[in-house]
Amino acid sequence: MKKLLLLACFVFLTSFYTETDVYLCNTKGGKKYHFTKDCQGLRNCQGEIIKVTLTEAKEKGKTICGYED
Asked: Where is the secretion signal located (predicted)?
């Protein structure tokens, strides 16, 4: 019974957790992440603009765009 209650609590709590999505310019030179796809910092992107989680962006060494800082 305890295991079932713990499992139910875990499922309930994780259902509220959502990871923030951010946008990257998918090129070798892209160093920043952006909260909106139409951010001014992405206007000169020569590659594909991709959506990733904030955690993934930080793991790739990206930092926040200066326009959104």
From this structure: 1-20
Residue type, 51: K
Whether residue 5 lies inside any domain: the answer is no
Residue 66 lies in a domain: yes
Task: Count structural domains, the chain.
Answer: 1
DSSP state of 40: G
Global pTM?
0.72
Judge whether 3 lies within some domain.
no
